[in-house]
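Input record (one chain):
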Amino acid sequence: MKSYIFAILTALFLTGCGVGSLVAVPFKVTGAVVNVVTPDVVGDTISGTGEVIEDTIPF
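The corresponding structure, as predicted from the sequence alone:
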């Protein structure tokens, strides 16, 4: 039973259910934190990198 659940979850994650979003999360979080300390341009650039990564990864 556990192997079926694992197989279904693996298939969902690898077929477009958030792989790009998961890769982009560290960049978005870092950008938000940096926005608090530095000028908005720096944090927005880091967050923008996360958005580009999310858009680039097709799944």
